Automatic annotation (TrEMBL):
The N-terminal region contains the highly conserved SGGXDS motif, predicted to be a P-loop motif involved in ATP binding. ATP binds at residues 34-39. It catalyses: cytidine(34) in tRNA(Ile2) + L-lysine + ATP = lysidine(34) in tRNA(Ile2) + AMP + diphosphate + H(+). This is tRNA(Ile)-lysidine synthase. Keywords: ATP-binding, Cytoplasm, Ligase, Nucleotide-binding, tRNA processing. Residues 29-202 form the tRNA(Ile)-lysidine/2-thiocytidine synthase N-terminal domain. Its EC number is 6.3.4.19. Gene3D superfamilies: 1.20.59.20, HUPs. It comes from Psychrobacter pasteurii. Residues 279-351 form the tRNA(Ile)-lysidine synthase substrate-binding domain.
Length: 520
């Protein structure tokens, strides 16, 4: 028969296990064990349920030695010994903290654990209901919305931030979120667990003969735990359960809200790359104001590792969206903690750009030429701009283009002799250069030729993209002037009016001629 003191914990773990059984299938399970009361109780419970055949896995323990307090090495030793006595595999990982803040310690802890875990492994954490209540209160006092007030999730995914662009992610599993600290304490005491009591968790100060704590010495979490919550529960004995219940309701509400804003976002998105995302303002403004705000809020922080934007920034972006004048100079800056963004508007489009991308766009493209008879020299990716450390812009399928032009020249030169055609091909060149502002160019399907700003406006190109337009022209012999063939931007290729336009258009439509940007 299960004793009362184990019933709550056992029930919570087994019910959470049943709930996530499918997600756990085939995955390796680890347990983050500080050696404190919560995670040690959890490790003990896992081992007990595994022995009884109720849990199909035995987690491998991971303990982080923060190297911050003298006692840390002794704690690591204590966890190792306990694991050995209880036949649980255990690894100690040492980290070096630079800033020594709580936030940095948490992040470094996760990164260290992820470094030994495989992609999509599961990490069990000892967070419980009281932790959840403290988290909710801290967020409430910081003005959180529905997403913040849902608190910690019992199952979530965490991506490694160790290297930019890293694909490694793991699952965090918190099976004890419905169990109170008191219930865990009871379990630990009844099982005679020799857990570690970290003094920085409570920040007690010894004063004179008695033990009192100095409120000013407590961090926010410790103050809520030791000062505010006892007051609240005196008046409202069930306050903690009620706050945790609100968290669950917010969790459900946030699922609905997020599904809605995801659907709204996909309707309004015109382009979506991490470094350049474009929203259609006409679509966006069809939505109610509340849905516009929710959409902008999630669009400004596209990945889970980024900070949520402030209410004020969302309002500023919305007022940019609703501007009726033709001002295209306004630029809002936003640092999401991971990326630095610029938010800009052009015509009916709203741009979210990495700052590094906007700066890269200002660099001039290369001026270069390709001889039409030397097909073998053409690289599969023909670089259009000197690469820097962040981006590479290239034209793929240039050999298809030169081949198409050669064929057309041969076909159209039936009045010439083979020798003359050969000579014409030999001297023919493709020239690539930054679009000259003075050159008059006819756009396909438009009347008359345009130059400079007018041409770029007709192309619907925002000012920050204009330095990155390449003109590709053909020069058939050194005596004859060149003819414009195509305009290339990082986003697209436009075939200009020329005898080669139909075949170039075909190459573009078949994706055999592409302008491609790679984020390095
Ligand atoms: N040094 C550590 N090594 C491994 N895991 C840790 C460590 N510190 C914290 N954790 C994990 O993160 C969870 C939440 O961290 P928190 O700071 O609340 O833990 P704690 O109070 O120090 O320890 P516990 O929750 O085990 O009593 C812990 O339950 C544990 O799973």
């Amino acid at each position: 028969m299960t004793l009362d003191h184990t019933a709550n914990l056992e029930q919570a773990l087994l019910s959470s296990f049943t709930h996530h059984k499918q997600q756990l299938l085939g995955r390796r399970v680890w347990l983050a064990c500080s050696g404190g009361r919560d995670s040690l109780s959890l490790a003990h419970l896992c081992q007990h349920l595994f022995k009884e055949g109720k849990l199909p896995f035995l987690p491998q323990l991971l303990h982080i030695n923060h190297g911050m307090q003298q006692a840390n090495a002794a704690w690591a030793e204590q966890v190792l010994q306990w694991a050995e006595q209880n036949n649980l595999p255990c690894q100690v990982l040492k980290i070096n903290l630079i800033k020594k803040t709580e936030q940095e310690a948490r992040q470094a802890r996760y990164e260290a654990m992820m470094s030994v875990m495989n992609h999509q492994d599961v990490l069990i954490l000892g967070h419980h209901q009281d932790d959840q209540v403290e988290t909710l209160l801290m967020r409430l006092f910081n003005g959180a919305g529905v997403n913040g007030l849902r608190g910690m999730k019992d199952w979530s995914s965490k991506k490694s931030q160790a290297q930019e662009g890293s694909q490694k992610s793991i699952f965090l599993w918190r099976p004890l979120l419905t169990v109170s600290r008191q219930q865990i304490t009871q379990y630990a005491n009844n099982e005679n667990l020799n857990y570690i009591d970290d003094p920085t968790n409570v920040a007690w100060q010894s004063r004179g003969s008695g033990n009192e704590f100095d409120q000013n010495q407590l961090n926010d979490r410790a103050w809520l735990r030791s000062v505010l919550l006892p007051h609240i529960t005196q008046r409202y004995p069930k306050a903690k359960q009620a706050i945790a219940r609100t968290g669950q309701l917010m969790q459900e509400a946030s699922v609905i809200l997020n599904e809605q804003s995801k659907a709204d976002l996909s309707q309004s998105l015109m382009t979506d790359r991490p470094y350049c995302s474009v929203l259609d303002i006409n679509q966006l403004t069809e939505l109610s104001t509340a849905r516009q705000s929710a959409l902008i809020h999630s669009w400004l922080a596209p990945s889970a590792t980024e900070l949520p934007p402030s209410r004020r920034l969302v309002e500023e972006v919305l007022s940019l969206v609703h501007r009726k004048d033709s001002d295209h100079q306004t630029c809002l800056y936003w640092d999401s903690g991971v990326y630095q963004y610029q938010i800009r508007r052009y015509q009916h489009k709203l741009y979210r750009l990495w700052q590094s991308w906007e700066q890269w766009l200002q660099l001039p493209p290369a001026t270069q030429q390709v001889n039409l008879d030397s097909q073998s020299e053409i690289a599969p990716r023909f670089s259009l701009k000197p690469s820097n450390t962040s981006f590479e812009w290239s034209l793929t399928g240039l050999s298809n283009l030169t081949f198409g032009i050669q064929q057309q020249l041969i076909l159209s030169s039936n009045t010439n002799t083979a020798v003359e055609t050969g000579l014409e091909l030999k001297s023919a060149k493709l020239l690539f250069q930054p679009l000259p502002r003075t050159k008059k160019i006819a756009l396909p399907g438009r009347v008359g030729r345009k130059s400079g700003k007018k041409l770029l406006q007709a192309l619907d190109l925002p000012s920050f993209m204009r330095p990155s337009v390449v003109l590709c022209s053909i020069q058939l012999s050194s005596q004859v002037a060149e003819f414009p063939l195509l305009l290339i931007t990082p986003e697209r290729i436009l075939a200009l009016q020329s005898q080669f336009a139909p075949s170039i258009q075909q190459l573009i439509e078949d994706n055999n001629l592409l302008s491609e940007v790679r984020n390095l």
